[in-house]
Amino acid sequence: MISFEIPKGVEDVAHMLHGLAESLMRKWARWADDHEHEQCEEWVNTMWIFTKSGLKGPTASGSSRKQKEGDTQGEKKQVTYQNLIMAVSVEQLSWGDAGLYLSMPFMGLGGAAIAAVGTDAQKERFLQRFATSEKPVWGAMAITEPGAGSDSAAIRATAELDEKAGEWIINGEKIFVTQGKSAVEDSDGIVVVWATRDRKAGRAGIKSFVVEAHTPGMKVTKVEDKLGIRASDTASIVFEDCRIPYDHVLGDPGVKTGFKGAMATFDATRPMVAASAIGIGQAALDRVKELYEQNGGQLRYGLNPNTLGTAERDLMLMEAQIKASRLLTWKAAWMADTGKHNSLEASVAKAKTGKAITWVTNKAVEIAGPLGYSKHELLEKWLRDAKINDIFEGTGQINTLIVARRLFGLSSQELK
Amino acid sequence: MFCLEPSEEQKMMQETARSFAAEQLRPLAHQCDEGGEIPGSLVDKAWELGLISTVIPEECGGAGMERQAVSGVLLSEELAWGDLSLAMTILAPALFAYPLLTAGTPEQQKHYLPLVCGGKPPCLTAAVMEPVMDFDPGRLACTAMSKNGSYLLTGGKCLVPMGSQAEKFLVYASIEGQKGYGNVGGFIVDRTQQGLTVSGRERNMGLNALDTVGIELREVVVDPEAVLGEGKGCDFSRIMSYSRVALNAMAVGVARAAHEYARDYALQRYAFGEPIAYRQAISFMLAEDFMEIEAARLLTWEAAWRLDTGHDAFKEAYLAKLYADQVVVKVTDDAVQTLGGHGYIREHPVERWLRNGRGFSCFEGLAIV
Fold it and tell me: Cys-Cys with A383: which of A361, A371, B224, B291 at CB 3.0–4.6 Å?
């Protein structure tokens, strides 16, 4: 039965986080943007209490699909809406401030990967700290390299197996690791690193490995200065003969098995990137609407669109774009919640939303004019913050490519 | 709770509509568009499916099922995927029946609704649009002026579906010439009434197979019992929301039809030694269209769901229409573009979908769920 009713529990979480966003996040938003590379302590400490007490991460549908397709009746009745809750939460936190949201102590992408493909023992060993540690802990994911971004098959970082010692030896350089510094230097965190066991094997040779903070041979070499989301650190991490135990490999270590496990993480996290963008877009729309109305502007829904004012029509289209993006995102999250394979929908949500919100936040600055451009308002910051969502975890183009391949049923060899 | 899967009942209805569209509407769409006519047998066959009468109360001769906008949009998308003119023809009597269902007095319902439950499609329609540049349902130029307890209707309407044959028109007019949705009333006018002139068939860019006419009203007298809802009014803004989600679903259906055709063509058409779908210039355009269709569909579903659950849906339906009107134009244009010169030739249906799709931003009140 088609329904857009948000479960009461989800609504409560959203309401609570909205309050937090309004009070705590907005208070620090401009400060954090002005003080790149500094930790916002009040925020981090408050959020650590929150995340510890069980704000769960998104889960890939693949991991929750324990039963075979066709035998999902029993599962259907117990939809927990974990991904939907997450999407709603991320939206609210990003409405507060997307940079602060990303910087909160949390298992992050790395943790999500472990949750998606890790064994029970691995989950216990690596994820426990996110529920029990006294001090804040961060998780991170290291995929991108100076020479390999969207083309993850071109990864050069290597993982060599020392069979005698029962250890992997990681070598290589990773860049653009979100919260990499926080995970490696500021806490007893974890980093999930993508490295190849055999470059000749292409994507099939790529595996992900968990490296714990303070492991010898892992070092943060740079923290980036960015256009936006400045509250969040973006690190370069170098691995030099970095040895980790054999059972730190995620999924099947065999070279022949594919790299789908790693990609499944994206099915769960891409909708969350979209949700973050939506939060920023909604923030920008809310504020610019306020300014527009203070200025005597009206929003006359129902009128022939040709008779609306330019800004009035833009504001309505912004609202429609945000709404469309949100529904696509919720669809992808709901599919994961109900154990449906959602890689197409996750990419649809991500590609559509990244582009839509970039447009929305640009329009907000444009409509507000000098106020929009001024740092007195947060509108210019939201434009800068929003842009990242069309880039990280697969650029809009990569996600469009994924959608296109699925649409036509073409392989990566056929549709490049 | 949040769920995007139709119920079993809705799935069955969707499936019925889909196969009817594929087997009955598609094969005749071209011919009907070229000839500007629809075989009566086709309309009769569609009528036999009972698409409208199922939601009419049992005491009026219907099946007494709950009217659901969500089911309506699922149905409308499928039929419009088959052909827009045919879909609008098949569903036209609802334009008269559904507003009566929600706003009509018990007497009006008893009098008119049984007409929708017979074996043959009834000649009932509604007249909303007017031949002006910035047509706005909240600012109708057609007026209803009260006089001696009755109303005198004066004004012009256009794009009245099935107007050549219609026996009764539900004409919307602004009461005492006042602006705003709240001042719009529905008036039942008989074809034979004095002061009503029905023009010949209109010629439009698209919708060629749909019989549309213009009508002129000159002080047509409407007695109180023929005023929709009599003294209570008809909640015209809600009627328009039901109409907007219906049109939206049809826009999605037309867009989907064009998009699927272009997708299949792009895989078959070779250029430079490989299918043109292998090129991002084509595949990205069509991938984006796929996302936009999905977005327009979800916006439509949400607005329809709000109507079903008693929420205010005016803004949602309006914004969804604002959105879908753009999507259908882009998608149908891209489909023609994908086929290149072949897309411009009437042998392929994409040019028809472009002509039909172009209409949505100009349409209000041409369909209802």
Answer: A361
